[in-house]
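quick q for whoever's on today - can somebody do inverse folding on this one?? i tried earlier but teh output was garbage lol. tokens:
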């Protein structure tokens, strides 16, 4: 498929043409998508009560969103190539907003499940097209800092869904909570319309072919540098993001904390990520990407080891903060190289990256859940404490080697 870039002039090395407003609204839309991904975790009991079922039965609405959100990532890269990154993200955010409003009025669990699947399928179009757009329009020298700004929306959205989402559900109800997130999708979509019109692109001559295009996307796995990046991403998402899901459960079962205290502590993870994003330009100048991945891996290892040996919940203030900072030191670097792993097929490449990210988290949750259920928190956290520092070392070697530097 022959395509024209969203910005035909190409990104400038001095960073004068960075589309700050577009990235801000893409980050806002990614916040809503990530919050929708996690918000149902805390509202399952309320949904179950509304429809007269157990929380376990109501959990089908979580799976419905997660499956379409993960699988349909593979399609949006092709749509972005065909119709333009910003236009696809705009339409996806708009329809995700409509689906969210419909969820707020769902008359039955079955209808809510269907609408959540639609919402997940629409929200799936935001992250991969946004990453590809940043790769198209921001020069590599400035890309990691801009990706850090964008990732701030996704990160805070996940934490918002887990912590603040429960508070909103408690005081407003789950229907109003869905409505609030739908409103955020809609606002971002309207703002992105104006940004997309500024960057109108000509359409390629060839028609969109989803089946052959999906095969071409999966065909990218034949490239060694892409396999390397996705393999590293798998371990980061599975053991960094997936394992962290059980920190709240550990705090509840080990120390008997209330949900309000747990929500406040979990929010520190986002603050750690925010601290890194704020300092990212400075850290890149001082220690570079190699120093960032080594430090990130070390912080993650220390945080999970600390969770094992801690005899009270007080050290978790530092543990969770350091975990968030370390995780996004690794992930931000991973995103930067992912935008460059297939510059000739950046949209499909970022779709493959995003799908791997969310499916790997699912694998991590299942694996950690098995270990936690059968052997407790110690082996689950120790496994992450060993793997993640090693991952930082491997990333350091790959950054200096050919696999991740091939295109960059």
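ok took a stab at it. sequence:
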């Amino acid at each position: 498929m022959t395509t024209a870039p969203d910005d035909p002039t190409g990104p400038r090395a001095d960073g004068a043409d960075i589309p700050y407003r577009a990235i801000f609204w893409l980050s806002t839309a990614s916040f809503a998508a990530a919050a929708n991904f996690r918000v149902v975790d805390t509202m399952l009991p309320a949904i179950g009560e509304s429809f007269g079922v157990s929380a376990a039965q109501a959990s089908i609405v979580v799976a419905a969103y997660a499956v379409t959100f993960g699988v349909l990532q593979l399609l949006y890269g092709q749509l972005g190539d065909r119709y333009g990154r910003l236009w696809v993200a705009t339409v996806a955010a708009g329809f995700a907003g409509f689906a969210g409003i419909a969820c707020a009025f769902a008359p039955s669990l079955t209808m809510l499940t269907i609408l959540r699947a639609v919402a997940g399928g629409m929200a799936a179009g935001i992250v991969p097209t946004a990453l590809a757009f940043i790769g198209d329009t921001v020069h590599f020298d400035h890309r990691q800092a801009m990706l850090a700004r964008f990732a701030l929306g996704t990160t805070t959205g996940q934490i918002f869904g887990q912590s603040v989402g429960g508070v909103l559900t408690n005081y407003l109800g789950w229907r109003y909570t869905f409505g609030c997130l739908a409103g955020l999708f809609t606002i971002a979509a309207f703002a992105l319309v104006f940004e997309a019109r500024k960057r109108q692109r000509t359409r390629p001559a060839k028609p969109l072919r989803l089946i052959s295009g999906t095969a071409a996307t999966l065909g990218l796995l034949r490239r060694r540098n892409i396999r390397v990046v996705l393999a590293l991403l798998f371990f980061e998402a599975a053991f960094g993001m997936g394992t962290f899901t059980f920190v709240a459960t550990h705090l509840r079962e080990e120390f008997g904390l209330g949900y309000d205290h747990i929500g406040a502590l979990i929010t520190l993870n986002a603050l750690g990520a925010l601290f890194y994003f704020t300092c990212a330009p400075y850290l890149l100048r001082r220690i570079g990407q190699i120093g960032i991945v080594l430090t990130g891996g070390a912080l993650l290892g220390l945080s999970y080891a600390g969770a094992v040996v801690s005899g009270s919940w007080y050290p978790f203030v530092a543990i969770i903060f350091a975990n968030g900072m370390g995780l996004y030191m690794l992930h931000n670097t991973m995103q930067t190289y992912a935008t460059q792993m297939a510059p000739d097929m950046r949209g499909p490449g970022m779709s493959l990256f995003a799908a791997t990210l969310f499916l790997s988290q699912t694998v991590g949750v299942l694996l950690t859940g098995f270990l936690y259920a059968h052997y407790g928190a110690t082996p689950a956290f120790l496994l992450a404490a060993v793997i993640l520092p090693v991952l930082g070392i491997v990333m350091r070697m790959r950054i200096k080697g050919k696999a991740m530097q091939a295109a960059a």
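fwiw Residues 1-9, 202-206, 402-408 have pLDDT under 50 and may be disordered. also The chain is about 80% helix and 0% strand. so keep that in mind when u check it
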